[in-house]
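Give me structure tokens for this 106-residue protein.
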Amino acid sequence: MTDKLTPTFGSFEDWNWQPPMVAHVMEELARAHWDDEGETYPGFAAASGGLRLAVAADTIGPDAEKAAHVLHHLGWIAAYMTSLDVDDDQRGAFGAIIAATEKWKS
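Here you go.
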């Protein structure tokens, strides 16, 4: 897929985006995935949470605040994944992640 897009859009380095622009675009992608509600992007909730986790890890400071945001989004993704058709071992692992991140759900 990347090979097909490269001629059209160039490589990421060609865009020469600065970190604030990258974070903004990732947040917009996260919003779009969430707003889509799975109509176009079946993994909308995981994609949205994953993008927001990445933005938090790269842009938020101090470290304790950054960690809280990452844990919040990690727990949120795990909660979404339990709504899918997963096996008992996977559901148990997601449950452990949810329990470990419960403090940061708000």
